[in-house]
Amino acid sequence: MMSKLRFPLSLPVLTLTASLTALPLQADTLRIAIMGEPASLDPHKISGTWENDVVGDLFEGLITEAADGERIPGVAESWEISEDGTVYTFQLRQDARWSDGEPVTAEDFVFAFRRILTPATAADYAYLLYPVQNAEAIYTGEAEPETLGIEALDDHTLQITLERSTPYFLDQLSHYTAYPVPRHVVEEHGDRWSRPGSMVSNGPFKLQRWQSQTRIEAIRNEHFHDADNVALDQVIYFPIEERNTALNRFRAGEIDVAREFPTQQYRWLRDNLPDATHTAPFLGIYYYVLNSREGHPTADPRVRKALSLAVRREVITEQILGTGEEPAYSFVPPGVSHYEPAMVPFVDMSQEERLERARELMSEAGYGPDNPLQLRLRYNTSEDHRQVAIAIGAMWEPLGVEVDLFNSEIAVHYADLRQGDFDVGRAGWIGDYNDAQNFLSLLESGVANNYGAYSNEEFDALMREAAETQDLDRRGEIMAEAERLALEDSATLPIFYYVSRNLVNPALQGWENNIEDIHRSRWVSFEE
Amino acid sequence: MTTEHTATHPGAGDLPAGESLGRDAWRRLKQNRAAMVSLVLLILIAIACVVGPWLTPWGLNEVNWNAFRAPPSLADGHLAGTDANGRDLLTRTLYGGQISLSVALVATLVSLVIGVLYGAIAGYLGGRVDNLMMRFVDIMYSLPFMFLVILLMVVFGRNILLIYAAIGAVEWLDMSRIVRGQTLALKRREFVEAARALGVRSRTIVMRHLIPNTLGPVVVYVTLTVPKVILLESFLSFLGLGVQEPMTSWGVLISEGVDMMQGAPWMLLVPSTFLAVTLLCLNFLGDGLRDALDPRTR
Amino acid sequence: MLLYVFKRLLQAIPTLLIVITLSFFLMHLAPGGPFDGERQLPAEIEANLRAAYHLDQPVWRQYLIYLGNLLQGDFGPSFRYKDFTVTELIAQGFPVSLELGLWAIALAIALGLPLGIVAALHRNSSVDYLVMGTALAGVAIPNFVIAPILALVFGVLLAWLPVGGWNDGHWRNMVLPVVALSIQQVAYIARMTRASMIEVLGTHYIRTARAKGLSEREVIWRHALRPALLPVVSYLGPAIAGIITGSVVIEQIFGIPGIGRYFVQAALNRDYTLVMGTVVFYGILIVLLNLIVDVLYSALDPQIRYDD
């Protein structure tokens, strides 16, 4: 009998002896905890910030990011922009090479741009390239990929033609949707080209190994044009969803950079690991969507305004979160280039005045102690979202608002927002690129991510006008005017501007906080 | 080796009415000190959870804007401190106890009734019926339970009773397995065969002879099921499928507290203590009950 | 016996078919879809994606397509992890979960059985209380509390062992997760063993064996242990299946790339193919484990025969 029981026991013994050897750690190895498992390493098939962390080290676009996030030339050495701002001509570096030694040519960019827009690729982020001529028509299947406004004039000269002048287009070219892909490899391996073994990239590092859900290893790419200035030999990315685990592993010295840490631990970290704890303003807004659809109490601008007035943003940023978030009184975060955000009209009122005004508005709208307003507030499951929702619910109590909190996992949450099945819903937006349009377009009529279905013709007209305007500062003023309209209307309820939260080994040099929270490993080195 | 216990088995027919069986068990239970202490503690916790929230100076969802993550203090009435939202932790723990205890009780009861009956019938009838019934259990086991619950929650809204039902409907599987295993072993024993030979109806054999004899492992299993249910409930809440704010449960409070382990240890300690004491008591009580109910020690 | 095993395996086919069918339709009824994320995709892009994964077809057509692929051993591509097929993901995740789970079960048995037997032999003494009290602490504290505490104490503060990661199954990375995973099982097994041991010791044939003058050791090893293990064995089937798939919390906290983590991630992401893949795989696993348990059962208890 006992011998029969031994059968299942003997198995692990065998597997253990087979795996006793650990991997030797190279001296200059950077170990980064990224916030999730990448969906893919094909730049055309990703959409998360954690994927950007990895893919951005493997590839380089025409334009790339410096340590402080500034845009600097990447594969492109120089460029010319036509008078009307619609034709860009890039000179590519002669020494740009793929990690297999093949040269990076203009043809690789043409191939990549066409590929990401081909409907069959089903790239979920392709719409970022819509400024390029014919891109939208191609993506919706109305035109052939060959008609895209991109052309290789010769091996090292690339011309891109836009639908219309797009002031932020150069910035966008550093985004992973605009990375080149190696035509010779993709054509050989098809969709599986981005796996270890077959993947070839043109960035400072190249993929060596990918063990799903546990680690991705990249080593330096000797063919990279600036390889001499890359200090690290190896980068290992650990996908860790649990922020507390990332913190513990950082404390134990198992990782050098954690791309996020739990807000709840901030005080402790600030006291105990001040040199390692980095927080910095981040290009993102945390807001509540107010449902403007017919039949919801929040369709009444007075109710929306009252709700916004009653939220004590300072309490949320200081007491609830306390990680250095700034209270938000505008929809576009500060620090966006060529843009001075508008502010909500009540920004200078005291809390008492705000509450007084909110009460008046509520009774004008027909709500009061006899007729309390019932609201359904949806948020997606997360400790931070929960705490903010509870606090805001309590802040609305003095207005006689009764809040029903609903939390659900992320897929259900956003599906419900889309279907308009809510009164108030949590949302957040991280800028895809450093431009106000990327935020304000969320409030244009009929736009996909306009969850509250806010619609204001005047706002739409201003946004159209801004899109036609060449002068960047003038354009910014027009958009600020649009934002002012939306804020007066309380189209949404901005709560706070995000901060980026990183834990960084103090021995690392060259790691700089920046507003987009983009950190490429090529700039980083360990102290000698 | 199996010829010794023929005639004198208590199930074989000489037992008086059920009432005295209960009284007999109670007498045995009273002799077990650990079990009695546990029973008293459990009753105290249950009373505290029901009555306590009225006695604390703070409400379930009442925010003290001056005390976020405040440590326990007598001065402002937060005997167990406050949570990250400035709400009184003791009040919330007591309310949470109401949810956790009722979820555990109802779900365990559901699993107990279904599991014992199902397992005993399958084991007793044996053969093709047994096979069919156990295949059904296999199917239930292989179901993506989480989807079933998600689905239920969406179709019927966020009704706590549904969590009870869903958890109970899953937990009976283990129970039925164990009872079936016991029954399979028991039914070949002579006292059952004797009863059958005497023409006792199957229903009576199952209810009077088989089930009482499986009670030992079953009671033990019940005391194992209660903590499992409490944890399962917290797991569901964690995924956003359990109790919704402002309601809470011990599992939810503990999972909140784990994140605050270093900054605000009371947020972990207070609900964990309630949970741990409850579970330990349930276990000791379970042992006591097992001893008291075991017909063979009589 | 062989015939019995063969028959059971044949019966597994309809079982699995029901599992597949039920979970497939349940899953497609669940709210939210694989493309519902933080950012809504433009309608035409979502249409492209849906077409690429056949989601634009009626559900019954999708079901038939899926079933057809499954028959050819093709679990399909993962909706979310686009560089891997579901088969590859399971092939990567399962050995990890299996290794972790078997070690945990082994540790739980190695500790739980003797503890339970000792407690039963010294029933109601201080030894009993001490042993069971310690074991019970394992059920009294949720493992999502124990795991971070273990990581904090042994990983961060004492720095004896790694806090997380798998490191290709290096033993140092396995210690904490295995312990965290087995603590609860130790308690379960110790209690089941103690309970059934006490029960067996109370039976007449043990009394008779003692009356015959057999030594205590002989009574326990030759007569009591075997029947006492029955409930424990019947518990092991579901326990192993549960430990392998249900170690989500542990896998999450220690960052271990096991199958349990995939399942929950996939369910939350509505990664239909990966969920189906893990469910089907899980189904097969359970059928096999149950079969093994039943075979073990009959080996332990000669009174049960599978001739009918």
TrEMBL record, chain B:
Gene Ontology annotations of biological process type: peptide transport; protein transport; transmembrane transport
Positions of the ABC transmembrane type-1 domain: 97-286
Organism in which the protein naturally occurs: Billgrantia desiderata
One Gene Ontology cellular component annotation held by this UniProt entry: plasma membrane
Subcellular localization(s) per the UniProt record: Cell inner membrane; Cell membrane
Gene3D superfamilies found in the cross-reference section: MetI-like
Keywords: Cell inner membrane, Cell membrane, Membrane, Peptide transport, Protein transport, Transmembrane, Transmembrane helix, Transport
Similarity comment: family membership: Belongs to the binding-protein-dependent transport system permease family. OppBC subfamily.
Transmembrane regions listed in the UniProt entry: 34-55, 99-124, 136-155, 161-179, 218-243, 263-286
Name of protein: Oligopeptide transport system permease protein OppC
Keyword Transmembrane among record annotations: yes
InterPro entries named in the record: BP-dependent_transpt_permease (IPR050366), MetI-like (IPR000515), MetI-like_sf (IPR035906), OppC_N (IPR025966)
The keyword Lipoprotein appears for this protein: no
Topology relative to the membrane: Multi-pass membrane protein
TrEMBL record, chain C:
Source organism of the structure: Billgrantia desiderata
BP GO annotations: transmembrane transport
Xref: InterPro entries: BPD_transp_1_N, MetI-like, MetI-like_sf
Entry superkingdom: Bacteria
Domain named ABC transmembrane type-1: residues: 94-297
Protein name: Oligopeptide ABC transporter permease OppB
Record PANTHER family: INNER MEMBRANE ABC TRANSPORTER, OLIGOPEPTIDE TRANSPORT SYSTEM PERMEASE PROTEIN OPPB
PROSITE patterns, per the entry: ABC_TM1
The UniProt record lists the keyword Manganese: no
CDD domains: TM_PBP2 (cd06261)
Topology with respect to the bilayer: Multi-pass membrane protein
Phylogenetic lineage: Bacteria, Pseudomonadati, Pseudomonadota, Gammaproteobacteria, Oceanospirillales
TM segment ranges: 12-30, 100-122, 129-162, 174-190, 232-254, 274-297
Family: Belongs to the binding-protein-dependent transport system permease family.
Keywords assigned: Cell membrane, Membrane, Transmembrane, Transmembrane helix, Transport
Subcellular location: Cell membrane
Chief localisation class: membrane
Short name of any one Pfam family annotated for the protein: BPD_transp_1
A GO term from the CC aspect: plasma membrane
